[in-house]
Structures are given as structure tokens and as C-alpha cells.
Amino acid sequence: MDQPDSGGNIADRILRWSFTYYIFKEYQAIIWGYYDESSVKKYDDMTPYLKNFEALERIKKKYPNLRIILVPQRDEVGFLGKKNRDSELIQEYLESENYIFDWCKLTANDYMPLDGHPNGEGYNKLLNCLKNTITPKVN
User: Fold this and answer.
1) 64-108: per-residue pLDDT in tens?
2) Which residues fall within 8 angstroms of residue 99, CB to CB, at 6 or more apart?
């Protein structure tokens, strides 16, 4: 018979395998991230995105009518939904460089319950966002 894991007390070992506890810790990290000033400061730097921005500039030069669709991450919608700092920085950059972009409006119900990918309804909304973005506007 295998010996039980001897690391920590029994409550710690049970909680480590608890899905509910896992979700609690994820939301706790999100909430602390919103209110922890030190975490906000470290994300104000655009350096991690520079290669992406350079690539985007090359695409914009080749396709000057480029339109961008931004899709919220699962943690940005729903009960505690708020744009994360990455999304805010990207939006600030797109605005400052005069890119044409829009957010695709997804809700928590548009995502799979466990993995954060869109579900069927979410993909339908993404398709509609794409259609609305590429369909010429008639005045």
C-alpha cells in the first residue's frame, strides 16, 4: 500500500486537490492583483510588448485598412470582470497609434466552464464581430 503524501497536514493535502479551493485561490490572486499597488507598477512598462507592436506596425504598413478585434479573456468578464492591465496597456497603445479596433463583447456565459476557451455561443459572437468588422459600412 502506498504511503500518503507526508507534506503538510491533512487539511492542506485535501485542499491542494480541491477544485473549489483552486478556483478560490485564482480569484484571490485576481483580486489582490487589482488592489496591490506594487503589481500595478510592474505592469506599466510596455517593454514586454515591443516586438508585438513592431510586428503590428509592419502589418499595418502592408495593410493600411487594418482593423483589429480585441477579445476579452475569461477573467475580464463575469462577476469580477474588469479589463486586466495587459488589455489596458494594449488598448492605450492602439489608441495612441490610431489603430482601428473594437472589443468583441463576450460574457461569462460565452466561455467553457473549465478552460477559458469560448463555447459555441462565444464562437458565434466572435464570428459576428468579424462579420461586422469586415463588412463595408454604407452611409
Assistant:
1) 999 999 999 888 887 767 888 888 889 999 999 999 999 999 998
2) 56, 60, 66, 68
